[in-house]
Amino acid sequence: MKELSTERRVALAFALWIVIMVGWSYVWKPSRPATAPAPQPSAPASTAPATEQKPAPGKPAGTPAVAATKTKMEAAPAPVPKAAAQEKTVVIENGLYRVEISNRGGVVKSWRLKNYKDNKKQPLELVNAEAAQQVGAWPFSLAVDDPALEAQVNGALFEMTPGEGPLHAPAEIAFEWSDGRVQVSKRLKFDASYVVAVESSLLVDGKPVAHGVAWRGGFGDATEYAHADQVKVIFRENQKLKVLEAKKLGVPDHSEQRLRQIGTMEYAGIEDRYFVAAFLPRSENPALWNAGMSLWHWRLEREVGEGDKRAKEAVVEMAAGTTVDGPVAFRVYVGPKALDELRAQKPPLTELVQFGWLGFIAEPLFYFLRWIYGYVPNYGWAIILMTIGINMALFPLKVKSWRSMQKMQTVMPEIKQIQDRFKKYGMRDPRRQEMNNEVMAVYKREGINPMGSCLPMLLQMPIWIALFSMLGAAIELRHAPWLGWVRDLSTHDPYYILPVLMTVTMYISQKMTPATSADPAQQKMMQMMPLIFGFLFMRTSSGLTLYILSSNIVAMGQQWYLNKTTPPKLGTEEKKGGKKSGDGAKG
Length: 587
Fold this sequence. Notes:
21 strands, single chain, Beta-galactosidase, Chain A, domain 5, alpha+beta, ten-stranded antiparallel β-sheet
């Protein structure tokens, strides 16, 4: 069975909470016209653009040529054959990365990020060498409609200038190759940032050929986050970010076939949970961001595992080109999905950090957390301090909810008597309306809002959901330790200590809170909620679980304080009409 994602676990947990906390209250309310459920957000627009072309029958699996007006070129002398004698590599690096490039195909063999580590504490490798070797393709190779031509140019030995390294950015490296008929050139410019300028040209018989610069052979963190379904192709078009999972790539049932999309895309690329390789327009001028881009996307399959555990794994691949035949020029951001870095790009890439539909709440909370981290350089303690701050800010709502629950508890015996008189009638029996009217009369007499105990909690839910999304998406929590056994707040607790403590503290907090229902079935279901939450959060990131645990502990302290305060003396104080609430109950 496929493991539930963090988002689905959170959604399921809150769905159960809402059903129990809110759903049961409607049983005892007067019947009202049914309210239509809130409309769900419409499904995202199809990621397929208006123009999609599939290979014509009988043609090799590739991309059909795009109809475009071609400039007539005068015949030029055939290029002089040019090739290197042997394969060699060169290393380019700066303070952020170390890139190794081979002159065979002018492709990238290694791309390590120095500020991010793998599970062996080594600089993180974004190129999956095992997958690339198995499928025979590497990043920055060329994608061409003609498979034979593509294999030829990506296997050629290019003359490389400079031919030796290492090189320290800013640096530029050029590749040239020709067999007298086909002529290829590539140029890569590295600077002090995560951005690399890429230019390429492909001529056959002196005429330009449509092509793209590809990221092939897999992408991203291949350590503990190595899940094939986390690698996706992304592009932004019509002011919307579109994400294509592996199952949506290429042509259905033909995993090696490519699909080419043409449109006014601002950028396109490949990503995993925390990192991205995004192909950006050559110009930083916003007026030229929609100049036109072609995007190839497809998937291959490779075998992983050994013996009986061998299985097929998708290898996600993509390439970016122009909408016309001719040279290709892009800026390529290869680095972390860190908000500050993404915001500095042109166009901005901040949408790649998926804070969810409540991102307008999650993003400020993220900066609040990072502000605390500036004073307490441990994200675990920063989460705890942030939780305390949020809970204290929301304490007035909790007081209001608690007072409402106290009042509800006072009239519970009377409500129970009314319910017992009508329990012989079915839920759809019209006489149930009389019971609801009597219950509402008690609430009105005592000045109780039946939703008063739930509404403040419901108002807090957007903050909770935003926090869950933020803590699951922020790269700052990747490999961030807390203490002892918790060495990575972005992954689940390896010993499940935090989920167990979360379950226990949730149960204690629940027992300290006044009951709002006399119904035994509802009370039993409420007692099961901590176990349900604990089970759902067993595989959730430690950062999320630590937040809930901290929130439970703060709630216990707040509840202890509230329980020590003098409760309202309902049932003993005189009402304006001269009656006591207790007398009203007897009436």
